[in-house]
Design a protein that fits this description.
This protein is α/β, with parallel strands linked by helices. It is built from six helices and twelve strands. The strands form two sheets. It has a nine-stranded mixed beta sheet. It has a three-stranded antiparallel beta sheet with strand order 4-6-5, with no helix packed on it. Helix 2 packs parallel to helix 3.
Length: about 300
């Protein structure tokens, strides 16, 4: 399933805008449980040898006004720093030699012996799943028309109120439960930046409030949770409870430093051009996990398949 580059237009709420600006300045049917089939994406949106266990690092869910009284913080395992990485959300295949971290769609199974990240489309409804969402949870404009991400044919989900955020989160959290039950180590909720495509109906504060709910649930299931793109909100990671970043084309758009600072180098970078790979490697090749993939994130044997690390 192809990737979705972060939109470069923001609609930050007052608190989010201030924190994000400071961070950037310092850096340069409700019962549906079916797995989503691979989606197509836009550029913007293996077996491993056994190693000795490493000490587990911990991440603590952040309390918010919308979350109930938190249970004791739950330890989660974070992705290893500066480790071989493969991005397989377009289809699973045996990871190449040297790969220690892999991201796959929630319909797939984890790669044995690796650190596995589970991709979920958390902020938008994929075309084949739109009718499975309650009509009032699809974002609508003043005329009652569903607001779409037209590049991908996906309806935006309505997370404007605490009650709707809770209802949307309840469904997404069932997918997160599925990731945990399969044995994934972490979850990657996509389309954090949907508010930038919402015609000003959603704000960054809506997005951060919603992802905070997902973070608390992921941690309760012993899963780490990654921020997907959206560099302008990286400075809020403590408030939102996000543990690491998955950044598309941060080399190409000079954003790697923003993610590296906010997430203490725990950043997985996907570039879709050779120039982007060169830029990412020149500045952060010794610090971050970086891979060059084709924009369709295709599988080996496909005419489009590209995977390089240098």
């Amino acid at each position: 399933m192809p990737v979705k580059r972060v939109s470069r237009v923001g609609a930050l709420g007052p608190i989010a805008a201030l924190v994000a600006a400071l961070a950037l300045a310092g850096c340069g049917t409700d019962q549906d449980t079916s797995a989503a089939p691979p989606r197509t994406h836009k550029t913007q949106k293996t077996p491993k040898t056994h190693e000795k266990p490493k000490p587990r690092e911990t991440s603590k869910p952040q309390a918010t006004q919308e979350t109930p009284r938190q249970r004791p913080p739950t330890a989660v395992e974070l992705p290893p720093l500066h480790a071989g990485f493969d991005y397989q959300i377009g289809g699973a295949y045996p990871p190449p030699s040297g790969v220690r971290i892999v991201s796959r769609d929630r319909a797939a199974s984890p790669a044995p012996g690796l650190y596995n990240i589970c991709y979920v489309n958390a902020f938008q409804a994929q075309p084949d799943e739109r009718t499975k969402w309650p009509a009032d949870l699809l974002l609508r404009d003043a005329r009652g028309k569903v607001v779409m991400d037209r590049d991908w044919g996906e309806a935006l989900l309505d997370i404007r109120t605490p009650a709707k955020r809770q209802r949307v989160a309840a469904r997404v959290n069932r997918w997160i439960d599925g990731c945990a039950d399969k044995g994934f180590d972490a979850v990657e909720p996509d389309n954090y930046d949907s508010y930038t495509r919402s015609r000003h109906l959603l704000t960054a504060d809506d997005a951060t409030a919603f992802i905070t709910l997902l973070s608390a649930h992921a941690h309760a299931r012993h899963l780490a949770i990654g921020q997907k793109n959206t560099a302008e909100l990286a400075g809020l990671r403590t408030r939102t409870g996000l543990d690491f970043a998955v950044a598309e084309e941060c080399g190409e758009y000079d954003e790697c430093g923003t993610y590296a600072k906010a997430f203490h180098d725990r950043v997985l970078v996907i570039e879709y051009t050779d120039s982007g790979l060169r830029k990412a490697r020149s500045g952060f090749g010794g610090r971050l996990s970086i891979v060059r993939r084709d924009v369709m994130v295709s599988v080996p044997g496909s005419a489009d398949y590209v995977r390089r690390t240098r």
